[in-house]
Amino acid sequence: MVSLGDFGTHADERAAHRSLLKALDDALTPFLHEMRSSSFGKNVVVMVYSEFGRRVAANASAGTDHGTSGPVFIAGAHVKGGFYGDEPSLTDLDDGDLKTTTDFRDIYHELLGKSLRTDPEPVVGTGRRELGFCDEIRFGSPDGIRTHATAVRGRRPRPLDDGARTGVPA
Predict the structure, then answer these.
(1) How far apart are CA 111 and CA 135, in angstroms?
(2) Three-state DSSP class for 4?
(3) Out of 8, 73, 85, 133, which residue is the most buried by the measure of CB atoms under 10 Å away?
(4) How far apart (Å, rounded) are the C-alpha atoms in residues 88 and 133?
(5) What sign for the dihedral angle of Cα 32, 35, 41, 42?
């Protein structure tokens, strides 16, 4: 697991996030390109998420405070590019927060089942659904390597807060 901190900006958010997202891009893009040239790289799936969302309205310091729903970015050769989940409304809010439309356990369900090819139920429980963003990885398959990015807006991943237990690092 790799961590990039300091996104908890409550003031001068635009400049701080611009710099942080550039650092993420400067690290992730070369990594994904390297994975395309590796025989094992086609089996790599990267998930980027925030431990908290942001409020919609700016505060008095040109920043935003912690909110509920947040984005998840998933990339890899077996990831189908696109946007998954309902488009967020900036006006139909839940007490100033974006309404959650995609549960993080559905994202984990698909990643565990399709990319790790393991039973996701012990980790995320029953009743989860696939979102359709990931092809099943067939280890050792000769298919060509392609990299796509996917954005999934949904409930922030906080497995322990929701009673789910996992031995897989988030």
Answers:
(1) 10
(2) coil
(3) 133
(4) 18
(5) positive
∠ CA 28-34-35, rounded to 5° = 90
Token readout for 109 is 């369900």
H or E stretch including 25? helix 13-36
The DSSP output letter for 85 is: S
The span from the CA of 112 to the CA of 44, in Å, is: 13
Model pTM?
0.74
Indicate the length of the chain as a whole number. 170
- Give the Cα separation of 59 and 99 in Å (integer): 19
Q: How many helices (H) and strands (E) does the chain have?
A: 3, 6
